[in-house]
Write a structure and sequence with these properties.
single chain; alpha+beta; Beta-Lactamase; 7 helices; 5 strands; globular
Length: 179
């Protein structure tokens, strides 16, 4: 477990100045690198960062990141497809099923009409904007293969990369403000 924790910490640090987070099977954020914290604080404010974060709720709830996501319908559909796929793959996981039901109670989500046969795509671009700052990101999810510990098995590392030079420059500028 200690070796895996060191590896995850190293991944998060080395991914700077780009955002990366670690979530559990219910999409609760367990750890974030400084870039992810900076970006979320810029968008949501420091007060919001004092409460627990859930990756899915942050992107799907109307009072979280939704107002800052320029392509919200596409992002919401992609995330719901992923969440549904994971929930349906583990029908006996009551915690995961409970989180899925909570997500489906959020406004506007059932109206997106995610089909039962929808398979989540490997990549999803999210376009964030607050004032003059615009950042496009693509996320990649890393899971730990054949872990010996059930706690590790449920962890996911999501690393976000800038989609263009302007987004990369914006993330580097945010990091410079923090230095």
């Amino acid at each position: 477990l200690a070796d895996a924790r060191r590896a995850i910490d190293l991944l998060l640090r080395r991914h700077e100045p780009f955002p990366a987070i670690v979530t559990d099977r219910r999409w609760n954020v367990k750890q974030a690198n400084r870039a992810a914290s900076r970006l979320m604080t810029m968008l949501l404010g420091p007060e919001r960062m004092q409460r627990p974060l859930n990756h899915m709720r942050m992107f799907l709830a109307p009072n979280e990141l939704k107002p800052f996501i320029e392509n919200w319908p596409a992002v919401a559909a992609a995330l719901l497809s992923r969440a549904r796929h994971e929930a349906m793959a583990a029908p006996l996981d009551e915690a995961l099923q409970s989180t899925w039901r909570e997500l489906m109670r959020l406004p506007e989500l059932p109206a997106l009409g995610i089909e039962d046969s929808a398979v989540p795509g490997p990549l999803c671009e999210v376009r964030l904007r607050k004032g003059d700052v615009g950042i496009g990101l693509i996320g990649a999810v890393l899971t730990l293969g054949t872990p010996q510990d059930v706690t590790l098995q449920e962890l996911r590392v999501e690393m976000f990369m800038p989609v263009d030079a302007a987004s990369e420059a914006a993330l580097i500028a945010l990091a410079a403000q923090d230095a």
